[in-house]
Amino acid sequence: MTDGLPVDIPDDLTWQRAAPDDATGPGPWIEIAFGDGDLVFLRETSAPGTVVTTTRTKWDAFARGVQAGEFDHFVDGM
Question: What is the model's pLDDT at position 75?
Answer without folding.
Answer: 83
